[in-house]
Amino acid sequence: MGKIIWRSPSNIALIKYWGKYGHQLPKNASISFTLENAFTETGIAYIPKDTPEVSISFLFEGQTNELFENKIKKFLESIVSEFPFLQQYHLDIDSYNSFPHSTGIASSASSMSALALCLCSIERHLEGKGEADADFFAKASRIARMGSGSASRSVYPTLAAWGSHPSIPQSSQEYAVSFEHAHPVFATFKDAILIVSKNEKEVSSRVGHALMEENPFAEVRFRQAATNMDTLISTLHNGDLNTFGSIVEKEALTLHALMMTSEPSFILMKPATLNIIEAIRGFRNEHQIPVFFTLDAGPNVHILYPEAVAEKVENFIEEKLLKHCEKGQWISDRVGSGPKRV
Ligand code: PMV
Fold first, then answer.
1. 117-145 pLDDT tens trace
2. Three-state SS at 6
3. Is 158 in the pocket of ligand 1 (CB under 6 A)?
4. Is residue 108 within 6 Å of ligand 1 at its C-beta?
5. Residue 309 backbone phi and psi in degrees, to 5
6. Which residues, in sequence order, are CB contacts of 197 under 8 Å at separation 6+?
7. 200: pLDDT confidence band, cut at 50, 70 and 90?
8. Which among 113, 205, 301 is the best mutation to test ligand 1's pocket, defined by most ligand atoms within 8 Å of the CB?
9. Are 27 and 101 in contact (CB under 8 A)?
């Protein structure tokens, strides 16, 4: 019997993963900033049991949640061969998110990575081994990926890349790798998450990925993603923020263009999303400072900027952008130091 707790952050993709095959394998490589303040903390107590079926109890923010519990149980049943201890121990899982409930912020990356890290820790603990090595994080990333593709990138600090790409050493389809030796300016980046709508997405990312199979632009997109990755990697090394921003914004708009050109077509942006994008571009042109937007699969806008211009940008957000946000809500986040064992 024992208990393990991990706190794992969300991440925001710079080169987007959209389209998959096989067992959650990506059609193109992606790379993301790891965040700091938006995290999930998950604790798992493991208690010996007699019957081999997977058995869990689950509390989300102190409350039972049957939907989440069933999802997690099904996921664990699918990975018993990875963790045979799931047949010997009952898991008492409790989990909470740092970010406010129902802000439309996807929690799958932080929650699946926290769960995967706990499982890998329990495995190591039962084997009497330590856990701070590269194999540990590669397995945690691979297991997180099976739950949610983007979660694979949440197990490393600062920048993480998932999917094979010739310019990323050791990169793999199966798990993410830490992207190291970036220009120091990127470790200072902030991410202001503007909450445009708190509503549940009309189309899940699972459905969105599947629609890429018939999207007429899919093959062009996968080639473009590989080229964008090469350009982005150069900027990550040399700190050329203007080129960095132009790639990141293009990636966000391409993601949403792919949604609009799927069959059936869908639009996750809201009018306020476009108002914010226009305002950011206007502000950047006027003040000539590095501030860029990106989008997830939803209407909320992530504003990326280095610490050096934070005061200017945050004043602009407060004065000009909050009127576009639901209840004036935004979350101040930054590039983070990766998951922590609590
Ligand atoms: O991890 P999933 O299956 O929810 O897909 C996430 C896809 C995007 O967030 C839109 C892009 C990305 O790379 O994170």
1. 999 999 999 999 888 799 999 999 999 99
2. strand
3. no
4. yes
5. -110, 15
6. 104, 270, 272, 298, 299, 300, 326
7. confident
8. 205
9. no
| Pair of tokens at residue 153 | 């990138």
Per-residue DSSP letters for 317-332? IIIIIGGGSGGG-EEE
% pLDDT > 90, the chain: 92
Q: By the 8 A CB rule, do 320 and 173 touch? A: no
Maximum distance among all Cα pairs of the chain, rounded to whole angstroms:
68
**Count of CA atoms in the C-beta half-sphere (13 A) of 144:** 34
Question: Are 114 and 7 contacting, i.e. CB atoms less than 8 angstroms apart?
Answer: yes
Structure tokens at 65: 């949640």
Compute, in angstroms, the gap from residue 3 CA to the centroid of ligand 1: 30
Burial grade of 31 (CB within 10 A; 0-12, 13-18, 19 or more): buried
Is the whole model's pTM more than 0.90, yes or no?
A: yes
